[in-house]
Specification:
34% helix; eight-stranded parallel beta sheet; hydrolase; alpha/beta; 10 helices; TIM Barrel
Length: 333
Amino acid sequence: MGALLACVTAFGGALASPAAASPASRPATPPPVSDFKGVNWADPRDNYADDAVVPSGLSTSDSYATTYAKSKAIIGGFSKLGANTVRLPVNPTSVNGPFWKSYRGAIDAATAKGFKVILGYWEADNAKDGKIDDQATWNQMWARLTSAYARNSKVYFEPMNEPFGYTAQEWTDVAATWVSTYRKVPRDRMLIGGYKYSEDVKPVCADPRLKGTRLALHNYGFWHTDWTSVDQWKADFKARIGDCASRTILDEFGASMTTGLDYNGPVGTSNEIAYIQAATDTIRELGLGSVYWPGLRNGDTYSLTTLQGTGTKLSLTVNNQSGLDRLHYAWKQ
């Protein structure tokens, strides 16, 4: 592999209690979207799970203390990448069931480190129709999540990942109802996905009922495998954003990190290099928030890192230094 490998070691430390890890204060001025510099931490199953969704390295059999210790190590590794944000998956089974007692350890470890945490809902693997699976359990999940973390200024809430089963009007209706239901959450801590595969934020941005919320955009290189022009990719990104850049967080974008591509080099015939260069150029130029997919997901060729170690003695190795370099460029680091 032509990519350089860099070892990222996450150090252990004292365990914080849930209360200690849940600051109640709200920043006087909400951070701009450009302050969201993050990675996704994903289940090996791509976060679509019929049972509890479990980020790589964690287990439903772990206690809160073990989950916290493992998460502290992994979040420490993300911090050494330059990230300050992590996007974590949730589903009703994770939150309404027994895993919630320990899964809170991942959220608490991240906020204790000073990370922003985006909690996003994924539908089950046996559905994948782009719609909420079950309204009652979804409502129960969000009631529990917002009750636990509405006062924690580091925690952000994303009602649905890629709502592609709805028309634009249907989705904005769903989102507007959710926003009005959870009024105790400040709107600047709500992250509403764009239309279809979160691929176009303009319809959401234009809805006055969603004024003040953040917007979640997704974009991937495999959507146009024949595009090898950086300028073409940049134009595509901007067309999906319109005049809504100040509210937009690109919370899923990624490309191959285990195949030796040099993202700092010439594009040649690689649509992935063109895409990553365009994405990071656009993030930097427009001041977008960004959360790479994925920072860690076992078995994913897009994963920026590989998990090393056993038990709670965990660390991360970088799979492609040039990919990380491009993130640093986007993040102005």
